[in-house]
Write the structure tokens for this entry.
Amino acid sequence: MSHTLSEQEIIRRGKLQQLLDLGIDPFPAPTFPVSHTAKGIKDNYTEEKKSEFAKVAVAGRVMMVRDMGKANFAVLQDSTERIQIYIRRDDICPTEDKTTFDTIWKKLVDIGDIIGVEGYVFTTKMGETSIHANSFTLLAKSLHPLPIIKEKDGEVFDAVSDLEFKYRQRYADLIVNPGVRDTFTKITKMKNAIRTFLNDRGGLEVDTPVLQSIPGGAAARPFVTHHNALDMPLYLRIANELYLKRLIVGGFEWVYEFSRNFRNEGMDRTHNPEFTILEFYVAYKDYYWMMETTEQLLEQTAIATNGTPLTSIGGTEVSFKAPYARVCIYDAIKEHTGFDISELDEVGLRDVCKQLHIQADPNVGKGKLIDEIFGEKCEHHYVQPTFIIDYPVEMSPLTKKHRSKAGLVERFELIVNGKEIANAYSELNDPIDQRKRFEEQVKLMERGDDEAMFIDYDFLRALEYGMPPTAGIGFGIDRLAMLLTGQVSIQDVLLFPQMRLEKIAE
């Protein structure tokens, strides 16, 4: 299929050919000697330091040109910021041959082209730190025009907001919406802060398999693939929990992993089929210790990311300053629905769902019904960080039974801004009890619950060697990123969110 070019694309390809005819490579070898960044210049230049900036070399993308005849102002954008460039014909072309300025610069260089500029720094009469160019080099010709963004006095009036464009063409979104780059820079700071917190306390970062023979560690529908050489089905991991616990069995006392997980489920503003979870497991600790550690981790991470434990999302201020409230899940349900479900069986729970107008899947059991009630009627009430604690055993097949509350387990979920961002346990380390819990999950699977857990016999064998008392947690890194960057959609904290197939002309 031929690629139908727009008028602008045809014009730019014509300019490409003209450059080639002039003997200029539009995509030369990447050897431009960058010495400074735009931000570095603007943050550090003063008239007193003029001599330190008498020779600079900056590379970036042309974002704007003001043609003033024999002198032009342009705006160059690198990975750090934008900076104004002053280009004068007699400086660029000191000889009688004015081709470099009159033809190459004024006619063949377009918005979006990547160039290198050498010159010196000065301050304009308007007080703007700028680069007076002595020469420029074309480093990459842009053949596809950028969306037009109108700006005045540094204020953007029509930033590209079309979500289809932003998510499909993130590369272009990053170019024309610099604030998007700031969001992902913050996310990197966030992850680095978490790593520092864990490393300073003795955590060991590890890697576990993405392709798994058993999709264990969570209640979720997996993606299935096939390994040709072994002639066996494999699953993209839904969680890394069971592998990290194997390492605790093996003798490590604190392990963690930033795990890319995959769940074959729905998509919305807080769910993407591919996402990042941080899980860590610590021997000889319990869920009480984990609550305190979680508070410390999140408070320090928020400060490292934003300079404050406070964040604002959708007009709501959230504080990650410790300590956080703790509420039993049964108490939360009673408070927000009026129903005490602590003694109800599956039939009774289905009746409550009916009264609350909750559509209950006939194939799921008691645990999923409680989860549905809490998710629909309670979760959204918890805006400030809140630990929802002490879950029914039916909801938690990998969790140790509560030491003092019959029928419950030592588990918490951390809810912030109405969404779960962490799930933690005192881990079940009794292999006999664990086998029974897995068998109950198989019964649910036979009833039609396609999110019930498989039995992982190798994990049971590992537990039989003996796993010390252990606390474990999983953080939804993308949801945490939403909170700390003030984004209301998970797609805005994923560089390349999943999208429906797009028809692109070849």
Notes: The first strand starts at residue 56 and ends at 67. Residues 178-200 form the longest helix (23 residues).
